[in-house]
Amino acid sequence: MFYTGIVLYNPDMNRLKDNIKSIINQVDYIICVDNNSANIDEITSVFKQNNRIILIKNNSNMGIAYALNQIVKWGYENNFKWVLLLDQDSITPKNIIIEYSRYISMNNIGIISPVIKDINLSNSNKPLSSYTVVNNCQDVITSGCLVNIQVCKLIGTFNEKLFIDFVDIEFNKRMLINGYKIIRVNNVKLIHEVGHIHKYGLFICTNHNAFRRYYMVRNRLYFKYKYYGQVDFIISYIRLILGTCKILIFEQDKMGKLKASIGGFKDYKKLL
């Protein structure tokens, strides 16, 4: 009933092995889509060891949205109802599928998500209810989400124009707009790393590289303009300018990230 999908791009092999080890006995198959990794030979040699791991190789980096859609398409074609999506460096708890299974029969469930435990930040241990309905599309990342494949057929799959960044947020927004629920199971904690977060006093920087910075700026502006209108778009525009100032003060490759940000500011309209 369940399979896992992982998008690969130059993965750290030790981390990837830990990822696979954490989930392999909880699902029927693991579908890995590789976006032209430099270490593809090493990836292939590892995956040959288990016939329940299927590797799909792309000849170029097609972007995370395209690869996620390949994973979802595999589920369509093989009559699966649910896919657990994971980043290549995430580590699942042993109870993730058992706990998620308690909620799959709820009405209008589109996505079941975990609590994210970022390895670079301290997390609250405050006790929570068994699950929380998530009404903010930006509160749920792709990794660790169990996605209803039938709902994907109805609302459309991931937006390939975005390539990377805001792919999950835009998908979540369409899920909510179409009346489907996103819930967070509060006793499932996924070990994850968002960028390379570092605190500088009161400021938190993600330290994403210039390549990512371009898509973060471009796609955020596109998303805000499309779904929230002019006022929220302007607020986001100002926040991105202030965020760029923070990068110029605290992060490395300042000029590269500045140029990438300017490119994102210029190009968001091309997506509309």
UniProtKB/TrEMBL annotation:
SUPFAM superfamilies attached to this UniProt entry: Nucleotide-diphospho-sugar transferases (SSF53448)
Enzyme Commission number, as recorded: 2.-.-.-
A Pfam family matched in the record: Glycos_transf_2
CDD domains per UniProt: GT2_RfbF_like
Gene3D superfamilies cross-referenced by the UniProt entry: Spore Coat Polysaccharide Biosynthesis Protein SpsA, Chain A (3.90.550.10)
Pathway(s) served: Cell wall biogenesis; cell wall polysaccharide biosynthesis
Primary enzyme class: transferase
Gene Ontology terms, MF aspect: glycosyltransferase activity
Keywords: Glycosyltransferase, Transferase
Annotated Glycosyltransferase 2-like domain residues: 6-129
InterPro entries: Glyco_trans_2-like (IPR001173), Nucleotide-diphossugar_trans (IPR029044)
Keyword Cell membrane listed: no
UniProt family annotation: Belongs to the glycosyltransferase 2 family.
UniProt protein name: Glycosyl transferase, group 2 family protein dTDP-rhamnosyl transferase RfbF
